[in-house]
Automatic annotation (TrEMBL):
Residues 21-304 form the ABC transmembrane type-1 domain. It is a multi-pass membrane protein. It is found in: Cell membrane. The chain crosses the membrane at residues 21-40, 60-78, 134-155, 249-269, 281-301. Its main location: membrane. The keyword Transport does not apply. Gene3D superfamilies: ABC transporter type 1, transmembrane domain, P-loop containing nucleotide triphosphate hydrolases. This is ABC transporter transmembrane domain-containing protein. Keywords: ATP-binding, Membrane, Nucleotide-binding, Transmembrane, Transmembrane helix. Pfam families: ABC_membrane, ABC_tran.
Length: 601
């Protein structure tokens, strides 16, 4: 049950002053708060003996007032120290989780769903925080506070009556342990169900357009209702066990009261106990109710905290797939990129996704990458981003050095990457463009948008640059999102600009404008363009055609056209019939079908 405290030992040691003061004040208050019942019992005895005077009454009242003031000051201080320590733990874990998420590569996010990560970052962290705050309080109150009361009852009143009142304690211990074991498993399952619910909501909201387009609203409602029913059922199972703690303890406390009153009255009649002692004993029994309830709360909180901390630590323990080497190099400029018989395989793949790639890209060159869907185009260019460990064969060199020898952040600062499906943040157009360059002026933003062919769209936006694009850019068209993402990369003027089919949703006229602008402003810097449109890479210094992870063709536009291979055929088809037919060819559809459609025109 207390494994969670051992797992948090480093935090408690780091915050030892804060927790030492809180626990010290709690222990001191244990001694202070046992005095009022003693004063009450003393007053009852004085009354029964007709010895209560004004001075003795004033003395007793003065002591009571003093204990109240001391309890208030000490109580405020320990609560502030204890709960601020718990919040510090929550803040620390939240910061560590965010830093961990930012270091993780795609493989991590393939294993953990977004909804599950949100559950671990919210509910689970709250449970751990409760353990470091309220859990420590219940630990002190259920152990030292209850022990202090019991010792006081035995010494100041009657040890016989105290022992008799302890008879229900073993039953409490057995039941609480059993309830705690059941609670641990049920709480883990409830948290998993909460993560599933989060994931379902996120997927539905992100894909609301698709849901509506296919008239799946009712099906989504039904599936969400089933998910909610699962969450309800598993949380109800937790609540069923949770609800047993307090009634069980209250019932056993009632038995303790019954023993105390019955046997205590007998001792009074036997002359072994005074009426004042019996009165103070019963007050102590009343004070003992909370420590007994705290036992149940302690087990509940510790089991929840242990389960939640395990879930959080499971995420934090996931090692980054890509890490910087010791004494890693800092790249200030990228002169050339070399693939030397480079082969790469995704962790979940059963075959090589890139095979024997030999390729050189020098500074100032433009490289075009084309090929069928699934041929490895995106895989090739994403090797430069080091989202996965380097390939198992061959080498990828930057400036003549293996890419893994360079600091990852330094490389990323020299590269601008625009994917086919860009991610826009729920901010304004201006803030999305200057995301990587927060100090960029409006003039720089407008210049980048002009290069990306977006300035004609600005007057149509309700608030111009201040227009909020919505979550993931939901208020914009696909082409608008791609051009804003392109402007975000262009404003950095990176050493290497990677366009991974970044203009697939842009019309041909706008694409031509963008490519001309890029050629004009990127003289002397490297540009890599991945595209399914053959004319988009026509101006490139070199074009490579990938097929099943291999370089099938390579050369300039003129060389590839003379070769009359896949590139030349695709180029001619796109020029003659438009890109729709060429897409069919790229997917392996029979050439005859395309020719038949062309003849029908």
């Amino acid at each position: 049950m207390f494994q969670v405290l051992w797992k948090l030992r480093h935090f408690f040691w780091q915050e030892r002053r804060r927790y030492g003061l809180a626990v010290g004040l709690l222990l001191f208050l244990n001694l202070v708060e046992i005095l009022p019942p003693y004063f009450v019992g003393r007053a009852v005895d004085l009354i029964s003996e007709h010895g209560l005077t004004a001075s003795s009454l004033a003395e007793l009242v003065g002591f009571l007032l003093l204990t109240i003031v001391v309890s208030y000051v000490c109580g405020f201080t320990w609560q502030y120290q204890l709960y601020s320590g718990a919040r510090t733990l929550e803040l620390s874990l939240r910061r560590r989780l965010m830093q961990h998420f930012l270091r993780m590569t795609p493989r991590f996010f393939e294993q953990y769903r977004t909804g599950d990560l949100m559950a671990r970052s919210t509910n689970d962290l709250n449970a751990v925080m409760q353990t470091a705050g309220f859990g420590i309080l219940t630990l002190i109150d259920s152990t030292t506070w209850s022990l202090t009361i019991l010792v006081t009852m035995a010494v100041a009143d009657s040890w016989k009556l105290t022992l008799a009142s302890l008879l229900p304690m073993p039953v409490i211990a057995i039941l609480m342990t059993k309830f705690g074991q059941i609670l641990h498993g049920r709480f883990e399952r409830a948290q998993d169900a909460f993560g599933d619910m989060n994931d379902r909501v996120l997927e539905t909201v992100a894909g609301i357009r698709v849901v509506r387009a296919y008239a799946q609203e009712e099906n989504e409602e039904r599936r969400f209702a089933e998910t909610m029913e699962d969450v309800y059922r598993k949380n109800a199972a937790v609540a069923q066990i949770d609800a047993l703690f307090d009634p069980t303890i209250s019932m056993l406390v009632g038995v303790t009261y019954l023993i105390g009153l019955g046997y205590g009255t007998y001792l009074v009649f036997q002359g072994q106990l005074t009426v004042g002692q019996l009165t103070s004993f019963n007050v102590y029994l009343g004070m003992l109710i909370w420590p007994m309830l705290a036992v149940g709360q302690l087990i509940n909180i510790m089991q929840r905290g242990n389960a939640s901390l395990d879930r959080v630590n499971e995420v934090l323990a996931y090692p980054p797939d890509v890490v910087d080497q010791d004494a890693a190099l800092v790249a200030h400029r990228i002169e050339d990129i070399r693939f030397e018989r480079y082969s790469f395989r995704y962790p979940a793949s059963d075959r090589d996704n890139l095979v024997d790639i030999d390729l050189v890209v020098k500074r100032g060159e433009t490289l075009g990458v084309v090929g069928r869907t699934g041929s490895g185009k995106s895989t090739l260019v994403r090797q430069l981003l080091r989202e996965y460990p380097v390939g198992h064969a061959g080498r990828l060199l930057i400036n003549g050095q293996p890419i893994e020898r360079f600091q990852l952040d330094a490389l990323h600062r020299l590269m601008g990457y625009v994917p086919q499906n860009p991610m826009l943040f729920s901010r304004s157009v201006r803030d999305n463009v200057r995301f990587a360059k927060p100090d960029a002026s409006d003039e720089e933003v407008l210049e980048a948008l002009e290069l990306a062919g977006f300035t004609e769209d600005l007057p149509r936006l309700p608030n111009g640059l201040d227009t909020m694009v919505g979550e993931r850019g939901i208020s914009l068209s696909g082409g608008q999102k791609q051009r804003i993402a392109l402007a975000r990369a262009l404003i950095l003027d990176p050493d290497v600009l990677i366009l991974d089919d970044a203009m697939s949703a842009v019309d041909a006229r706008t694409e031509v404008h963008i490519l001309r602008s890029i050629r004009r402003v990127r003289q002397g810097r490297t540009t890599i363009i991945v595209s399914h449109r053959m004319p988009a890479v026509q101006h490139a210094d070199r074009i490579v055609v990938l097929d099943d992870g291999r370089i099938a063709e390579e050369g300039t536009f003129q060389e590839l056209m003379r070769l009359n291979g896949w590139y030349a055929q695709q180029y001619l088809h796109q020029q003659a019939f438009g890109e729709a037919e060429a897409d069919l060819l790229a997917e392996g559809v029979a050439e005859e079908a395309v020719e038949e459609r062309g003849a029908l025109r």
